Amino acid sequence: MSGGGLVPDELVSQISPSRVAMNGTEGKKPRCTALEGEVGKGVSCSIYHQRSSPCREFDAAWVNGEPNERCDAARAAFGLPPLEPEQQPGLVPIAI
């Protein structure tokens, strides 16, 4: 189903003949099934090294010294304030 991508087939849903979505991300309150932990306290990706291209391409605000309005919007959806430059998150992958 994943078309030879990195994400395990059991974690995706077919949304068109040529596209899939991570399970849990299709609804009004998206939460990827690979996301572990509690938003606002500590989360990690259970398939970090196999994550999808949208996840690979999405940087948290200030990671590269640049703001990210999409990151701010995602945080706001969970009642969290935007990150500030001095709060640059330490993006450390989980060892698999």
Automatic annotation (TrEMBL):
It comes from the Bacteria. InterPro entries: Puta_zinc/iron-chelating_dom. This is Putative Fe-S oxidoreductase. It comes from Pseudomonas asplenii.
